Each structure stands twice: as C-alpha cells, then as structure tokens.
Amino acid sequence: GFGFQGYAPICLGLEDFYIRRLYLRIQDCFGRPISSAPDAWFDVVERYSNDNNKTLKRTTKTSKCLNLGSYNYLGFAAADEYCTPRAIESLKKFAASTCSTRVDGGTTMLHTDLEECVARFVGKPAAVVFGMGYVTNSAILPILMGKGGLIISDSLNHNSIVNGARGSGATIRVFQHNTPSHLETVLREQIAEGQPRTHRPWKKIMVIVEGIYSMEGELCKLPEIVSICKKYKAYVYLDEAHSIGAVGKSGRGVCELLGVDTADVDVMMGTFTKSFGSCGGYIAGSKELVQYLKYTCPAHLYGTAISPPGAQQIISSIKVILGEDGSNRGAQKLARIRENSNFFRSELQKMGFEVLGDNDSPVMPIMLYNPAKIPAFSRECLRQKVAVVTVAFPATPLLLARARICISAAHTKEDLVKALEVISGVGDLVGIKYFPAEPNKQHQEHGTIKLE
Amino acid sequence: MQPAPLFCYFPAVLGTKREEGGIQIEVPRRRVLVPCQELAAAAALSSNCFRRYCLSESGRAELGKRDTYTNRKLGKGFSTMASYGLNMLNSTVNWVTQALDAPSARAVVFGVHIGGHYFVEGLLLVVILFLLSQKSYKPPKRPLSKKEIDELCDDWVPEPLIPSITKEMQYQPPVLESAAGPHVVINGKEVVNFATADYLGLVGHEKVQESCTAALEKYGVGSCGPRGFYGTIDLLPLDVHLDCESRISKFLGTPDSILYSYGLSTMFSAIPCFAKKGDVIVVDEGVHWGIQNGLHLSRSTIVYFKHNDMKSLHDTLENITADNKRAKKLRRYIVVESVYQNSGQIAPLDEIIKLKEKYRFRVFLDESNSFGVLGQSGRGLTEYCGVPVEKIDIITAAMGHALATEGGFCTGSTRVVDHQRLSSSGYVFSASLPPYLATAAITAIDMIEENPDLIKKLKRNISLLLKGLSNVEGLTLTSSPESPIVFLKLEQSTGSTKGDMEVLEEIAERALKEDSVFMVTSKRSILDKCRLPVGIRLFVSAGHTEADLTKASECLKRVSALVLKHRD
Questions:
Q1: Domain end residue (candidates: B418, B450, B482)
Q2: Is the ipTM of this complex over 0.95?
Q3: Which CATH number do you get for residue B371?
Q4: Interface contacts (A, B; CB < 8 Å)
Q5: Where is the Aminotransferase class I/classII large domain (chain B) (predicted)?
Q6: Of A7, A276, A299, the CB nearest to B264
Q7: What's the domain range around B523?
C-alpha cells in the first residue's frame, strides 16, 4: 500500500503460505453463495474466475442442487408452516432487534418465555439465552474457571471452547478423543500433582466434552465420562451444538439417547443454529448458576439481546418438536432423520467408502485423505447437482481431508437414493472407495426375497 | 614385562586425583597420582605424549623415556605402604596383561595386526561415549503408588462451581412488552425509553419491517451454516450477505468489508488475526470488554494509556519506540473507540492520526456508537474529524446501535479483509448472520443516505437534553457534547463502585416507577478491567420528541435530588 515504509507488514508471510499455495487454488469449493433458503434443494450461484481462482466473480445463473451440507437437521431452515407466520408476527410486535443488552432494555416477554421453554426442553431448572453460540462458549468459560482451575478438554473440541478456555486463564489439559480411560488417568495424575510448580490443590476441575463432534460424527461416551467425573468430583460441561434436537427419542439430545440423567451434567450448552433453524446459544443449569451468569457474564451484560423473530422461531420449533402445536410433525421429523441417517450411512459403508461416526448421528464424514481429491470430489458432485461440503486444513489435519454430509429430515428417500448414486459414481472416479464393496449381500437379499 | 595399557590410560583419561601417599606426578595438563612405575611413566607421557603412544604400535619404545623423567621426579621419596600397594598392583597388572595378550585378544582385520590393547582402547572409547551421553545425575523420583493417589483423590475437595448468590445478583431487568422504540410498554404502562441505543429511531420503522418480512418469507430465519459452507446467501437481483458487505464499503468509502454475525464477537475476533505474541498494542483504558478480550486472546504486549488523554498517549508511544529499537518485524497498533461506551467521550481522531504517522503505528477504530451518528452524513468519526478514511487501517462496528439490527462488520483495505475471511475465528467457525438481519442493515443504510435529517434531528435532541441536564444536583456530565450516549456520574462518589451502583440503581428505579422514564446504569462484569467510574446512561434517539426530553431532564433532577438528600 502507499506510504508504508517503516511499518511491519500487517500479515505475516508465513501464515499465508498455505493460503497462497493450496487454498486459493481450490477456493471455488468453499464459500459458495446460494440464492434461496438452505432447504433440501437449493439454488447454488455459479461463479467463474479469470485469474486462476485468485478472485471469483458471481454470475446471475443458478443451478438447483441437492443440499447435503447445511445444518438443517429437522428441516426448519426454509419457511415452515407453523414457525414462519409466528416469526413474522413477532417481527411486527417487537421489531427486528432490541438494540440493547439484556440487562438494559433488551429483555422482552419473548426472552423470558424462551428461557423457560428451553429449560423445560433440555430438562434443567433454568436456562439463559445469548445472541450467538460462539460467544456463549467464549464468555462463559472465563466466568466459571479462573486462575488456579483446571480444564480438561477433549482433543477434538471446537474452536470456541478452545478460545474460551484460553481466555479464562485456567490450566488446560487435553485427553485423547473420546477415551474415558485416558480421562481417568489424566484426572488422577492432575489431582495428585496439583497446580503446576506450586503443587497446591486445584480450585476446581472441569471436563468439557461435546455431544456430537462435528468433524467426526461420533457421539461422546457420556455415561462413562459422567461416572468418572462423579467419582473424582470434577464438573461436567456438555456442548450440544449438533446433538440438541437431532438425536434422542424426543429430540432432547445426547443425554436422552444415552440414558444419562441431566442432573448429573453440571452445565449444558447448545446452539440454535442447527436443529432449530435460528440463531443463538443457550446455557442450562441450576437456578443459582443461571442467576450468577446473568449477573456476571459479559455476553449477557454487553452483547445485544437475541433478535425477537429469532427467539420466536426457537419457541415455535420447540413446540413443534414436542408436539405442542397439535400435530405430530415433530415426532415424524425425528423418526425421519433417524431413518435417513442410518440408511445413508449403511449404504455408503456397503459401497466401500470410509465413513466415520456412530449410528443415529446425522453427521457423516467421508474420508478423502488426499488434499488433491478435495476439489475433484467437490466439483464433480456439483456438476451432477449434488452440493457437498469438503473440509480441509485448518479445520482438520492437512492429510485427513474429508467430505462431510449432513442429513436432514427434509430429505426424502428419492433424494437420498439419487445422492448415493452420484456419490458412488464420483467416488469411483476420484478413487476414495478405500474398503472393498459388498455386492454379495445385496444379491443374497434379493435372492431371499425372491424365494419368499 | 609388558606394560599394562589398561592402567596407563585410566588416570590420564578420567583425570582422577588421588593423593593418598605415593608419588605426585606433574603432567602437562593434569595432576595424577600413579601407584606404579609403569603407570607413572604413562601418565607422565599423557596429553602431548599420549597421542604418540596411541598411534605407534611399538609405543612401548617411548617408555624408554620414562626412566629419566620418573627419576627426576622421584626426589620426593617412597613410603612403605605405597610399595606394598605397588607390589599388589604389579601382580594384578601382570595377570591382566597376560590375559589381554592371549591369542584370543589378538586379531587381524584387513591385514592390519590388532593387538590386545586396541581391543581395550576400543572398549574404553565405547565406555567414554556411553558416559558422555548420559544425562546429569538426578535422584530417582519415586512415583506415587496407586493407593496414595486414591487417597489424594478422596481427600481433594473442589470449590463450588459458583460463589453463593448475594442480593444484588437477584436483580431482574424490566421486561418490555412492545418494540424497543422511543416509547415502550413496561408492566402495562407506557414509558419514555432512554435505554436502547436506537439512535436514528429505525426500530419498528416501516421500510425496515417490510424488507425483513420479505426476507423471512423467502429464507426462513436462520442461515444454517458458516460462511464457508453454503451459509452465504445471495438473493438475486437483491443480494443479501455479499451485497451487505459491498453496501457498507460503498457507504464508508473503503475497498472492502466483512460481516460478522454478532457485534461483540467482531472486535475479539478481528484483533487476534492481526496481532500475535510479541506485537505491541497501545490501548485506551476505557475500552469495552469485547476489545479487552480480543487483546487478551492475541497475547501481545498491551500498554494502557489514560482515558482519552492525548498527552498520555504521546508519552506512551514515545516510551515504546524508545525501548524497542528492533521494531522492523514488530507490528504496532493503537486501539481506540470513537465514542466510548463506558464514558460517552469522543476520541480526538485528528490528533491520534498525527501521532500515528509520527511513530508509525496502525490504528484500530471501533465505531459502534458513532456509525450513522457523527459527521454530516453519518459516516462516523472520520467524517466528523475531517480525516480521510484511508488513514485508518481497520474500522470495526457493531450494527446493534444506529442500524437497528444485529451483527457487526469490519472494514479496511482488501488485504485486511481477505485475511480475516480465513483466520478470524468468529467468522470461520460460526454460523453466518441470519439473512433478514442483513437485509435490515441494507435498508437502514439506504435510509441514512436518503434522509440526512435524521442525523440532524438526533443532534438537536442531544443538545436539548444536555441543556436540560446542565444543572442536575449531585450528578456531573462526563460525556462529550456531541455523543449520543449521555453519561452522568456521581459528583461525590461513595468511595466504592458497589456503593455508587446502589445509589445509581435507586435513581434509575425511581425514575421508572414514579416518572415513567426508563434509563439504565452502567453494568460491569467481574471480568471487566475498566476502572472508569460507573454512572447513569441515557441513549438519545432521533425518535424522541421535545416533550420526552424535557420530561427526562425534569425527572432526573427531581429524583437525584431526592435520593441523594435521603442518603445524606
């Protein structure tokens, strides 16, 4: 830029080596703009580049593709017959934003209703709602833990948890992903040793895990972890960003699915962006905890209150899930997402793909491993009208690139079958069927049916 | 008799010093005591002669020199103990020599004769290397047994997760029952609202409502994904996210901008992108928590200067540049807010720019409360102070104030903005802004451009209110005359923040209950490092009428006089 002599460069050369050499060349696989609601089928805007992908220009052409990438687990992303009219009503009543923090003039009746609703849904005495899920983690952890505390977090936790833990000033230790025995080892070691250098006993210990890990699709081994934490008197913090509303018989998350009593988990956190089609995050816990947070948490004291139509959307979608709107659409959606996920996962595995994740989880990453296969897979799928999400460094390690599929209750069986065909074809082209396919079983099945 | 090479080497190499009777031989590099004649000879030949002895196969011939040498040194005399020891050693040495020179100890490798001593030399070399590679000696730590760890775990008692609840923690803010415009309904009564930062009165405006409704019907509420994974919504012909960003840049006159989904996360995601460990940041002590958290996460060196004091800033910059001579690779920033949330003061941008250019720092400006407010056309502090917007490196703002929507943006040069698209954690790892809020922002900016009288009205309201509040008993004004946040602090502080807060909260409560004027006190979190005095804040809006403003000033005069008299 002009006149910058004597100034150090604002962006260090080393940081953007990856960006210049690898990322820019496959830039068209990320950040694709869409021009309709992120429903099961949406319009992807076509882009072109004249300078080898350094800049991308949008055209006015769109192509209708199958959406396998948005977090739309229960299908509330597009206009819904029950939720949208109510959201518009609340817009008229309370306007798009309250322009104020919750402690000042930002608490409306909607907000108090919302917090009650969320607490009831999750199964805890009280809840507090914030405007953004990322800020929830970053602002809560410094309040609960300070210097002299210990945070033990799973090695694959989300960036917001890592940021919050760093901001808190507590010591951080990591345990192997989803391995309760290693967690026990770490806990025993740390309690015996005490704080680093002074060896004084720790003030408090908190173990942070996620319900569904977004890059692995795995459920966390919650019953074992909770029992270990009870034994060693550590506090449990559960981040249910992806699992709330998507798993469990009535959609209440990992605790319901794995049979863990919610009273055993001290702090439950979640976001509304995924299953509820809105924005924001919440923390649920005991009444005292919520009161304390409302008094001290910076996100509550300094951040704008959640937008009223967003709040109304959450309330309506919770009502639909619980069946309180008078129909059984909620139960249907939950059953459908479970069936869809299990069907899709088993089919992919039969075809020979390497798919991570547990049964019942709607997130399924397909391993690509080689970073060069990312653009191949992504572009070829898009050409055949299936929009997938590919994940590269830095969200995952450099050589563990993957394509992540998010199943939704809005997908019908035909959509899934088409997607399977396309992915199978592209998988053959790109060469990611790392396991042998199982054609024999299918023939046998057909055989048995015929005989009957 | 053949000398024993083993013993010859030991003292010379390991350098043992034994002085228990016997001869002390002065060797060129070290002093060793050798108990036998042959050893004495070998040691004496050490260092300089050592190598010659090693290299020559018939090195034994060199030992011929020993006699004259030892004879010279032997003037000191023998003791009987020494001679007895010597005899013992002689016999052992003979035995060892014979063992070593046995045929098994000799070998022929590649036509070279290897005598027994080479074998020993090799062994010694191995021993030396092994000892050198060992770490320094540490007393072995006995690890705790399983039972001990169990006991420790049983004994340990953690602190409760939260401290016990006190009375002030049970404060409940008033609950609104209608939209947060200039007039709002609380508990069934209509009150004048000075607690929302709706500076231009756009909350509930028809045009904004219309565009939001259209967006809600088309897109639903949320965007269901981060910007990198199909969360960028682009309504053709009217774009949403990407157009919101270009609309903001066009309005401000900057090359590019980036949209964040929450106002608070804008600052604390933008700062760690550009400042890492080792960089220097000079920041005003009255900045809000979002900036403080960003500074903490960036792990750079932070230096505070006195609130809005240019002299203090000048001195601080002077000190820093004097200290850090090797400042070529260091990035240096000044972080200021245009209108401080904690005190209502306006930063003198032209002076800051002069200082920045003199000392070669970069400026980070947070324009949350001045965007749409200051300047002839609402372009913010740069327009107000007459500074060209290119001189500020990074401008951030939260949109939850004048623009009557949610979210935040960051604007600057293309390089700055592009870097954030990949390394700003609040942008990459978080869902994007809901589309209806982005449309509300676009509509709001359109309205600001089309109706500049909104800004004039706001300025008029501010001056009216300040005139009315010019002689309130017990409260002094700390905010600048043009700031939309009117900040009043206690003239005589009670001595502690807690005491001040009690008095101020009582004033605010009574104002709401008795006079139906809704105003708020400034709240501080326990994590907030700001030490500025707390006070009462009134957010002036262009939607307030003259009657509202007079009502507010009358009310405040009356209530504060009442409360403070009561306290005295």
A1: B450
A2: no
A3: 3.40.640.10
A4: 356
A5: 190-553
A6: A299
A7: 183-202+453-567
State how far residue A443 is from chain B, nearest Cα, in angstroms: 38
Q: By the CB < 8 Å criterion, does B156 face chain A?
A: yes
Question: Rg (Cα) of chain A, in Å, rounded?
Answer: 23
Both B354 and B271 in a single domain? yes
Residue A250 above 90 pLDDT? no
What 3-state DSSP class applies to B22?
A: coil
- Compute how many other C-beta atoms are within 10 angstroms of the C-beta atom of residue A166: 18
The answer to whether B158 contacts chain A (CB < 8 Å) is yes
Measure CB to CB from residue B328 to each of A8, A44, A107 and give the nearest one: A8
Banded pLDDT at B422 (limits 50, 70, 90): confident
> What is the Cα–Cα distance from B96 to A317, expressed in whole angstroms?
93
Least CB–CB distance from A95: residue in B171, B179, B434: B179
Q: Please, which pLDDT band fits residue A282 given cuts at 50, 70 and 90? A: very high
Band (pLDDT 50/70/90 cuts) for residue A33 is confident
Residue B32 shares a structural domain with residue B68: yes
Are B433 and B515 found together in one domain? no
Percent of chain B residues topping a pLDDT of 90: 6
B428 and B518 both lie in a single domain:
no
User: Cβ contacts (< 8 Å) between A301 and chain B: which residues?
Assistant: 289, 523-525
Query: For the residues of B37-94, what is the DSSP string, one character each?
Result: HHHHHHHHTTTHHHHHHHH-TTGGGGGGGHHHHHHHHGGG---HHHHHHHHHHHHHHH
pLDDT of residue B215: 86
Measured between CB atoms, does B127 come within 8 Å of chain A? Answer: no
Question: A177-181, B56-60, B475-479: lowest mean pLDDT where?
Answer: B56-60
| Beta-carbon separation of A133 and B431 below 8 A | yes
Is residue B375's pLDDT more than 60?
yes
Q: Do B218 and A79 touch (CB under 8 A)?
A: yes
The nearest alpha carbon in chain B to A18 belongs to: B422
The Cα–Cα gap between A299 and A281 comes to 11
Sheet holding B485-490, edge to edge: B475-477, B485-490, B535-539, B520-521
pLDDT at B12 over 50: no
Nearest-neighbour CA in chain B from A433: distance (Å): 24
Share of chain A above pLDDT 70, in %: 93
Chain B residues inside the 8 Å CB shell of A1: 413, 415
**Cβ B465 vs Cβ B540: under 8 Å:** yes
B415 to chain A, closest Cα gap in Å: 8
Are residues B342 and B269 part of one domain?
Answer: yes
Contact map slice: B 496-535 vs A, CB within 8 A? 518, 520, 523-528
Domain CATH for B489: 3.90.1150.10
Q: Are A27 and B421 in contact (CB under 8 A)?
A: no
* Judgement on whether residues B350 and B301 belong to the same structural domain of the protein: yes
Q: How far is A438 from chain B (nearest CA, A)?
A: 32
Q: Is residue B76, in this structure, part of any structural domain at all? A: yes
Residue B177 inside a domain? The answer is: no
pLDDT (0 to 100) of residue A235: 92
> CB distance A143–B204 less than 8 Å?
no
Higher pLDDT, A59 or A321: A321
Same domain, B311 and B428: yes
pLDDT tens-place string over residues A112-133? 999 999 999 998 999 999 988 8
| Total domains present in chain B | 3
Query: What pLDDT is recorded for position B475?
Result: 85
Within 8 A of A139 by CB-CB distance, chain B residues are 264, 293
Name the domain boundary from B54, B72, B101: B101
Structure confidence by residue, pLDDT tens digits, A43-61: 888 888 888 787 888 888 8
Q: Of the candidates A83, A132, A309, which has its C-beta nearest B262's C-beta?
A: A132
- Within a domain: B152: no
| B176 falls within a domain | no
Model-level pTM greater than 0.95?
Answer: no
Same domain, B470 and B368: no
Q: Which of B236, B264, B440 sits opposite A35 (nearest CB)?
A: B236
